[in-house]
Amino acid sequence: MLTHHRLPVCLSVVSTDLPIWFTIETAATLYQKERDRFHLLLREPPLPGGESLHPPQTDPTNGVKGTVHRLLWLEISPYRVIMTMQANGNLSYRHRWERGVYGISRYWLQGTSKKNHQSLQLRNYTRMLKLEGHPLPQHLELDYELWSGKVQLGHYLLRLQIHH
Prior knowledge:
CATH topology: Lipocalin
Radius of gyration: 17 Å
Order of helices and strands: EEEEEEEEEEEE
Shape: globular
Structural class: mainly beta
CATH superfamily: Calycin beta-barrel core domain
CATH architecture: Beta Barrel
Protein backbone atom coordinates (compact mmCIF):
# COMPACT_ATOMS: atom_id res chain seq x y z
CA MET A 1 0.00 0.00 0.00
CA LEU A 2 1.81 3.11 -1.23
CA THR A 3 -0.29 6.25 -1.52
CA HIS A 4 0.93 9.82 -1.50
CA HIS A 5 -0.53 13.26 -0.88
CA ARG A 6 0.95 16.75 -1.42
CA LEU A 7 0.06 18.78 1.69
CA PRO A 8 1.09 22.01 3.45
CA VAL A 9 3.09 21.41 6.65
CA CYS A 10 4.56 23.40 9.51
CA LEU A 11 7.61 21.94 11.27
CA SER A 12 9.07 23.67 14.32
CA VAL A 13 11.88 22.85 16.74
CA VAL A 14 12.29 24.80 19.96
CA SER A 15 14.81 24.41 22.76
CA THR A 16 13.38 25.02 26.21
CA ASP A 17 16.77 25.96 27.69
CA LEU A 18 18.84 27.34 24.78
CA PRO A 19 18.20 30.17 22.29
CA ILE A 20 17.34 27.74 19.48
CA TRP A 21 14.10 28.08 17.55
CA PHE A 22 13.15 27.55 13.93
CA THR A 23 10.02 26.95 11.87
CA ILE A 24 9.59 25.66 8.34
CA GLU A 25 6.31 26.20 6.51
CA THR A 26 6.23 24.50 3.13
CA ALA A 27 4.53 21.84 1.04
CA ALA A 28 5.48 18.23 1.65
CA THR A 29 4.70 14.86 0.14
CA LEU A 30 3.19 12.33 2.53
CA TYR A 31 3.61 8.68 1.58
CA GLN A 32 1.56 6.03 3.38
CA LYS A 33 3.73 2.92 3.60
CA GLU A 34 1.44 0.76 5.77
CA ARG A 35 -1.55 1.33 8.04
CA ASP A 36 0.35 3.37 10.68
CA ARG A 37 3.65 4.05 8.86
CA PHE A 38 4.30 7.16 6.83
CA HIS A 39 7.16 8.93 5.10
CA LEU A 40 7.11 12.70 4.78
CA LEU A 41 9.46 14.43 2.35
CA LEU A 42 9.94 18.18 2.33
CA ARG A 43 12.43 20.67 0.98
CA GLU A 44 13.77 23.52 3.09
CA PRO A 45 12.30 26.71 1.59
CA PRO A 46 14.64 29.57 0.62
CA LEU A 47 15.54 31.98 3.39
CA PRO A 48 13.98 35.49 3.35
CA GLY A 49 15.92 37.74 0.99
CA GLY A 50 16.69 34.81 -1.33
CA GLU A 51 19.87 33.80 0.51
CA SER A 52 20.80 30.21 1.17
CA LEU A 53 22.67 28.76 4.12
CA HIS A 54 25.10 27.26 1.60
CA PRO A 55 27.06 28.93 -1.20
CA PRO A 56 25.85 28.29 -4.76
CA GLN A 57 27.28 25.18 -6.37
CA THR A 58 27.61 24.19 -10.00
CA ASP A 59 25.26 21.47 -11.18
CA PRO A 60 27.51 18.94 -12.97
CA THR A 61 24.77 18.01 -15.47
CA ASN A 62 24.31 21.48 -16.94
CA GLY A 63 27.11 23.64 -15.47
CA VAL A 64 24.61 26.09 -13.93
CA LYS A 65 25.15 27.51 -10.45
CA GLY A 66 22.20 27.29 -8.09
CA THR A 67 21.28 27.04 -4.45
CA VAL A 68 21.81 23.84 -2.51
CA HIS A 69 18.52 22.22 -1.54
CA ARG A 70 18.23 20.58 1.83
CA LEU A 71 15.79 17.69 1.92
CA LEU A 72 14.13 16.55 5.15
CA TRP A 73 12.80 13.02 5.19
CA LEU A 74 10.73 11.86 8.16
CA GLU A 75 9.75 8.24 8.78
CA ILE A 76 6.74 8.43 11.10
CA SER A 77 4.85 5.84 13.14
CA PRO A 78 3.10 6.01 16.54
CA TYR A 79 6.18 4.34 18.09
CA ARG A 80 9.20 5.75 16.28
CA VAL A 81 10.30 8.78 14.25
CA ILE A 82 13.43 9.00 12.11
CA MET A 83 14.40 12.34 10.59
CA THR A 84 17.13 12.58 7.97
CA MET A 85 18.43 15.80 6.44
CA GLN A 86 20.37 15.40 3.22
CA ALA A 87 22.05 18.22 1.37
CA ASN A 88 24.79 18.80 -1.13
CA GLY A 89 26.35 21.19 1.37
CA ASN A 90 28.57 20.56 4.37
CA LEU A 91 26.18 18.98 6.88
CA SER A 92 23.76 16.04 6.96
CA TYR A 93 22.14 14.40 9.97
CA ARG A 94 19.85 11.61 11.14
CA HIS A 95 17.88 11.50 14.38
CA ARG A 96 16.09 8.39 15.64
CA TRP A 97 13.51 8.89 18.38
CA GLU A 98 11.55 6.20 20.21
CA ARG A 99 9.50 6.88 23.35
CA GLY A 100 11.39 6.10 26.59
CA VAL A 101 14.54 5.02 24.73
CA TYR A 102 17.96 6.53 24.15
CA GLY A 103 18.20 6.98 20.40
CA ILE A 104 21.02 8.10 18.16
CA SER A 105 21.57 11.50 16.61
CA ARG A 106 24.34 11.38 14.02
CA TYR A 107 25.81 14.32 12.11
CA TRP A 108 28.04 14.08 9.04
CA LEU A 109 30.41 16.95 8.25
CA GLN A 110 31.69 16.86 4.70
CA GLY A 111 35.06 18.24 3.71
CA THR A 112 36.22 19.48 0.34
CA SER A 113 37.11 16.02 -0.96
CA LYS A 114 35.04 12.83 -0.95
CA LYS A 115 37.53 11.19 1.44
CA ASN A 116 37.54 14.10 3.87
CA HIS A 117 34.37 13.75 5.94
CA GLN A 118 33.69 13.08 9.60
CA SER A 119 30.72 11.99 11.69
CA LEU A 120 29.63 12.93 15.18
CA GLN A 121 27.31 10.70 17.19
CA LEU A 122 25.15 11.95 20.07
CA ARG A 123 22.38 10.33 22.09
CA ASN A 124 18.85 11.57 22.51
CA TYR A 125 16.29 10.55 25.11
CA THR A 126 12.66 10.71 24.00
CA ARG A 127 10.41 11.79 26.85
CA MET A 128 7.24 11.88 24.78
CA LEU A 129 6.17 10.93 21.25
CA LYS A 130 2.57 11.65 20.27
CA LEU A 131 1.07 11.14 16.81
CA GLU A 132 -2.52 12.24 16.18
CA GLY A 133 -4.79 11.87 13.17
CA HIS A 134 -6.50 9.01 11.42
CA PRO A 135 -6.27 7.65 8.78
CA LEU A 136 -3.53 10.18 7.92
CA PRO A 137 -1.37 11.90 10.55
CA GLN A 138 -2.24 15.51 11.35
CA HIS A 139 -0.03 16.33 14.33
CA LEU A 140 3.26 14.95 15.63
CA GLU A 141 4.86 16.08 18.87
CA LEU A 142 8.25 15.00 20.22
CA ASP A 143 9.79 16.00 23.55
CA TYR A 144 13.44 14.94 23.80
CA GLU A 145 16.83 15.64 25.38
CA LEU A 146 20.13 15.64 23.48
CA TRP A 147 23.20 14.15 25.22
CA SER A 148 26.95 13.86 24.65
CA GLY A 149 28.25 11.31 27.14
CA LYS A 150 26.98 12.52 30.53
CA VAL A 151 26.48 16.15 29.41
CA GLN A 152 22.99 17.26 28.44
CA LEU A 153 23.05 19.49 25.33
CA GLY A 154 19.50 20.77 25.65
CA HIS A 155 15.83 19.89 25.92
CA TYR A 156 13.85 20.18 22.67
CA LEU A 157 10.28 20.16 21.43
CA LEU A 158 9.61 19.18 17.83
CA ARG A 159 6.13 19.78 16.43
CA LEU A 160 4.84 18.86 13.00
CA GLN A 161 1.42 20.04 11.79
CA ILE A 162 0.11 18.48 8.56
CA HIS A 163 -2.79 20.42 7.06
CA HIS A 164 -5.38 18.37 5.15
